[in-house]
Amino acid sequence: ETGVTQSPTHLIKTRGQQVTLRCSSQSGHNTVSWYQQALGQGPQFIFQYYREEENGRGNFPPRFSGLQFPNYSSELNVNALELDDSALYLCASSPRRDNTYEQYFGPGTRLTVT
Amino acid sequence: LAKTTQPISMDSYEGQEVNITCSHNNIATNDYITWYQQFPSQGPRFIIQGYKTKVTNEVASLFIPADRKSSTLSLPRVSLSDTAVYYCLVEDSGYALNFGKGTSLLVTP
Q1: Do A45 and B97 touch (CB under 8 A)?
Q2: A71-87 tens-digit pLDDT
Q3: Strand ordering across the sheet containing B18-23
């Protein structure tokens, strides 16, 4: 069984640019959530997708957007990058939407904005 | 307002039992208590979850008193590889996991 995978592993972008991060969920999982983790902090919820629709959103501006595809893989898009967007971006998949069920995290994408 | 409070850091020697206590005074009836572990530059990993009393799996035990206002994660006989950040979460069948800053555990020889 393949776990959650994310690409790329690392990425360096310039302020104002746009970035797309990708996530492949674990087989059989129809729910994908994205988190941002700044250095020294716990992960912060960005949004969740369930069966290709946004199911919930955290306190992040609209320039953070996402997609989920029919195979349940997902993308996180960030427009107009700011220096504070530098963080580890984590994707988590689950066979259920609710947060009482175990979520399986990928290794993350380290984004650096200069 | 944070739902959980846990120590920022803890130190232990190899082979000892480590107990990390988490305070959640405002826990609601529908809330579950969940612990995740995170190694540097990796995603968090589910350790254990409970609602009341005691839960044990192959990795850890979770002790929850009757009032459920706190919980204790117990790691038996830690090794160097248990050095990680441990997060206590209180979740309510919503959709987001609410991580705090966690407890950074350092295990030394």
Answers
A1: yes
A2: 999 999 999 999 999 99
A3: B18-23, B70-75, B61-64, B53-56
